[in-house]
Write a structure and sequence with these properties.
There is one protein chain. Helices cover 78% and strands 0% of the residues. By secondary structure, the protein is an all-alpha fold. The protein has one domain: MFS general substrate transporter like domains (Growth Hormone, Chain: A, Up-down Bundle), CATH 1.20.1250.20. α9 runs antiparallel to α14. The protein is globular and about 60 Å long.
């Protein structure tokens, strides 16, 4: 669908392809989180989720200058630069999707590469998790969609989703407003993603090592709020870059501990629908609504600073929600002693 965007000729075809791309993406991320829960014991889950999700900032770090270069291919073979951007960045995904069909197995017992000892240890560690009480037990889908834990977790995830999505769309324009060229904008735009890539993995590993989820999720959210507020006050390039780095480091460092926390609250039978619901709501509100809110405020006021204020307010509400939601040391807030022993 991404590569096919090069075929867009009018607003209708653009909207159709964006809808189909969103439909394809909708099942991928919660599907991967569920898949990892079949393989990864809770003790290791934050670092593994962070390692998987580091692809997002890493792709922006690598892709930003590449995209800027591809846009310079205007006229090559009769195509515009943006045509080449979608084609050359979309085709590898199709190839990797085909590779996954033959490479990945559903569960450890189906895989041929682990030894019998490794497979037995892994099955035992996962079985220990299944026996632990969960805050969200098995329930009908209609009740799951109204469950307060699921909805609150979705609100919390909306904060990071909104920060990451909004900056991915608007950060290049914000940087370019300082008089930079397209290539300079592309290079500078990649810097926050490079920092986020390293610190995202570090935060996930640290959360696993300490066996703690709550504050490893809250502190990155506070960093988002601090960065957004600082960016709104900054009037020069260097402070703006520092604050943008803070926002994106927080938005991505949040993900490993948060999804480990969320999956720890959901029973096995509720995990698939619960993770999908959290992700879908966060993408709808954060990746959809808040990105447009930023654009509306920017268009109405002409101010990048004021456009960041709704995001900052959302961050404060999300921090308060998570602190209330995880104020007890229940499942998911801290890795249990049994899991550590496993």
């Amino acid at each position: 669908m991404s590569a096919a965007t090069a075929l867009v000729r009018n607003p209708t075809s653009f909207y159709v392809l964006r809808f189909l791309l969103g439909a394809a993406e909708a099942g991928f991320f919660p599907g991967v989180l569920l898949y990892l829960s079949y393989w990864i014991p809770p003790k290791y889950r934050a670092r593994i989720v962070a390692t998987f999700m580091v692809a997002i900032p890493a792709a922006s770090f690598i892709g930003s200058p590449i995209s800027a270069a591809l846009l310079q291919m205007d006229g090559f073979a009769g195509l515009r630069g943006w045509h080449w951007l979608f084609i050359l960045e979309g085709v590898p995904t199709v190839i990797l999707g085909i590779v996954c069909l033959g490479f990945l197995t559903d569960k450890p017992e189906h895989a041929k590469w682990p030894t019998d000892e490794e497979r037995d240890w892994l099955k035992g560690a996962l079985a220990n998790e299944a026996r632990e009480p969960k805050k969200v037990a098995h329930m009908p889908l209609t009740k799951l969609f109204r469950n307060r834990y699921v909805l609150c977790l979705a609100l919390v995830d909306t904060c990071a989703s909104a920060a990451g999505s909004t900056l991915s769309v608007w950060q290049p324009q914000l940087l370019k407003s300082f008089g930079l060229t397209v290539m300079q904008t592309g290079l500078l735009n990649s810097v926050p993603y490079l920092m986020a890539s390293f610190l995202m993995v570090y935060c996930g590993r640290r959360s696993d090592r300490r066996g703690e989820r709550r504050w490893h999720t809250v502190i990155p959210m506070l960093l988002i709020g601090f960065g957004l507020f600082g960016t709104s006050l900054s009037g020069s390039l260097l402070p703006t870059m520092i604050m943008l780095c803070a926002v994106l480091v927080g938005a991505y460092a949040f993900k490993g501990p948060f999804w480990a926390l969320a999956s720890g609250m959901l029973s096995n039978s509720a995990a698939a629908a619960g993770l999908a619901t959290i992700n879908a709501i966060a993408n709808l509100l954060g990746g959809g609504l808040m990105v447009n809110v930023y654009g509306w405020v920017k268009h109405a006021t002409g101010s990048y600073s004021l456009a960041l204020m709704p995001l900052d307010l959302l961050t404060l509400v999300s921090v308060a929600t998570l602190l209330l939601l995880s104020r007890s040391s229940g499942p998911g807030a801290r890795v249990t002693n049994e899991t550590k022993a496993a």
